[in-house]
């Protein structure tokens, strides 16, 4: 059990009480084998809400609850809240190999990898679980646990109901989405601080898209690590945020270290933090940040979740992202309300606001849940589709087996306009693109089946290239792009069969 002597239970706000009631009712009404997803913005009190849901489920159903998190800090925070409201709970960490006294507890909190290892050794490691609550449910690592609890209910909780892997949509695992209060509503009701947004145009030429669909760390480090971008960051800070407690998000460690160096030279109080830090060093840095009024913390991929420091006054996005979830997570770190803080500043140095809209803007999360591909496509293409400012970066495994340089040298947009200049059909560019893919695959393939494997590995590149083409033509629809990709693959497959089948 967690010592709660100094921990005071958080009282539910009216909107939180209403949410708890509706979710418990929904679970009770639909019975077993029903999975529910709940969306609420960062700062809306997800931990308080699902802790109360756990308590009421235990009382109503007389069954146990399992809560899954992906960070130990979230596990401890949840355990304290549960204990404070009278729920006997136990954290399953790496030291817990068996639970001989599990009858003493109504609720268990576990990190997903630890629990998965225990369940693979013993499928009944935790008995009597009727409800599994998944914090940060957009992460796909939790899916591996679901098979062990198919007879009960699963409640996923997230600020952004979009899967971290577009190939594994959340509606595969959840039957229904309940949308909580909007960001603008929470601001108007006084629960969240409002964001004053400052945008600076930046040249993102040179960014590359990786296999995960976001900009690669290596290309981001090259763009954001140069002298001019460092100067732009410093200028933005000095223009807007001098003296504020400031949190800077970077894509790569090299960039963050350079930021620390740049700001130190100007005499500012700044420290760097990334995922390679030990627990002790991390606590030291965060303690310094908490107690230093005008502190600047430059970080990489570690404070987007499980970090709560309400005194942050300015958020700087010193990076570009194509992830709406990450965009909201980063900004949400500044949205905590205090008696003397009803606003915070947001400085965008990655054209992110132009890509996704303002943080406070309304988003149709039901649409995102039901039609994630369409939703994401519209967010990334309505105003400024950065796929046309970047090059595609191939996974290292492909670079080792294919002449990817020949693929990189072919720019379908340039070829399209060259065809038009020569009086040819623009569609000829697609045929020339296929020639390029065919030559690279057939050169490396040992036989037809190997050729098909290489072709499958290049599917993201094929789609990326054909999207470029459809942007060049005046009339293009998602159905046309789908047709184009299917036709392209069919014809490419036939050409490979004709050449490689006889070898």
Description:
This protein is α/β, with parallel strands linked by helices. The protein has three domains: 14-181, Rossmann fold (3-Layer(aba) Sandwich), CATH 3.40.50; 190-362, Rossmann fold (3-Layer(aba) Sandwich), CATH 3.40.50.300; 394-500, no CATH class. It has 21 helices and 15 strands. It has helices spanning 14-30, 46-61, 72-84, 112-121, 143-146, 183-188, 217-224, 227-240, 253-265, 279-291, 324-332, 352-356, 365-370, 372-381, 396-399, 404-408, 412-421, 428-444, 448-457, 459-472, 478-500, and strands spanning 35-39, 64-69, 89-92, 107-111, 129-135, 153-158, 176-179, 194-199, 208-209, 246-250, 270-274, 296-300, 314-317, 343-348, 391-392. The strands form three sheets. A seven-stranded parallel beta sheet has the order 3-4-2-5-6-1-7. Strands 8-14-13-10-12-11 form a six-stranded parallel beta sheet, sandwiched between helices. The N and C termini lie far apart (67 Å). Residues 1-5 and 381-388 have low confidence and may be disordered.
